[in-house]
Amino acid sequence: MTDANREVGFDDDFEDLDYNPLEDVPADEFVADGEEDEDFAEDAGQLGPTAGAQIRRRSIDADLPAEQRIANLFERFATRRRVLLGILDFVSQPQRADALKAEVEWLQEFDRSVYQGYDFSLLLEEAGAIAKVDEAGQPWVEGEEAQPEIVEEDGVRFYKPGPYREVYWVITPEGAAYVAADDPWGRLQALFAAEEKYLPVYKSVLVFCAEDGGRSVGDVDVLVNKSPLSRNPMRHCTSFLKKLEDCGATVWAGNWSTTALGRRALEELLADVRGIDEGEE
Known about the structure:
Mean pLDDT: 80
Radius of gyration: 27 Å
CATH architecture of the largest domain: Orthogonal Bundle
CATH class of the largest domain: Mainly Alpha
Shape: elongated
CATH topology of the largest domain: Arc Repressor Mutant, subunit A
Number of helices: 11
Largest sheet: 3 strands, antiparallel
Helix content: 25-40%
Distance between the termini: 78 Å
């Protein structure tokens, strides 16, 4: 031990301590020999779930019923609600894993995320909203791989791999029940009731984005900034746009556009509200 170490109070016996920094790590945090590490995908050894810890099978919700796990998932991923619902709709009939991946890419074409099809399928499976099935739609049985065939060629015998088992995904009864109970119109009504003060802004945004081709964030920002309601307290236009999107009233597709539900709101909920350019009440 150096004099410098002695000056800062290191004990001479420290070097003799038998300390293993991994001893306190739970055994189930390690990947046992022969197990697949879920942080890696099968495709060329590339990193799999990009959100790592969120995708781990050891869920804190594991002991809850599927209905509650699904509700918790949608609450945690509120900004991905449209994508999650789109996936559940897509797998109302069994769909191959590669088809699901392509569907998620389409759903997120204008709304990029670190979560991809592989990630969402694990999250939804863990929640009990979707399940693996085989090509015939029967429950997937792990380890039921096709046995290799012994073939002989030029006097040499070797194993020929059996046919590859495709993974299919299908919605579960619990997932279907969640979709059936989804009520975007009710959420929009609740939003307007909770934020009645901002109804002139919501109406103006919906009218503005109802134009063909939608509107850019910059254009909506100019509109919203005309209203003193957006300045005290300060609220950016994206706050209004995202709240409307969460209720299915707006959608982002390169620009912000008003959906059919948003147009219905203009007719049934906001008809008597004066917008920004009409002189807010």
